[in-house]
Design goal:
By secondary structure, this protein is mostly beta strands. The chain is built from no helices and 10 strands. It comes from Parolsenella catena.
Length: 119
């Protein structure tokens, strides 16, 4: 049973127009997305009960807060976030940040928003 497929990122849109995730693949074993944030944009703090999330920075610089610890990461950096770790993305810098995100193992619903993150 063949699973190979090819897609082009231009066939997809960012969730919030010019920012957020752009999923190139959702399931069956993992999610793969390009993520972009404009200067001054951020993403709600949340955690996953089952999935782990990884970010690889393609360009720019961003703050990713994990369980209250701010990690400033930039082009070429990789960050792994385990299940249960509350994380928050913020771009307080003057340039767009673009990154790859993977989530695995795939779960249809596994995002719990955290209304009072530490930052």
């Amino acid at each position: 049973m063949a699973e190979t497929f090819v897609v082009n990122e231009n066939d997809f849109e960012y969730r919030f127009g010019d920012s957020g995730p752009k999923y190139l693949m959702k399931g069956p074993r993992m999610n793969y997305a390009l993520v972009q944030f404009q200067p001054g944009q951020s993403f709600q703090a949340h955690h996953h009960n089952v999935m782990e999330e990884n970010f690889f920075i393609l360009e720019g610089k961003v703050d990713i807060v994990v369980d209250g610890v701010c990690h400033t990461i930039s082009e070429g950096d990789f960050i792994h976030i385990g299940p249960g770790e509350v994380h928050y993305v913020n771009n307080p810098y003057d340039k767009v940040v673009k990154m790859v995100s993977t989530l695995a193992p795939f779960q249809e619903v596994d995002k719990i928003e955290d209304p009072n993150p530490e930052y």
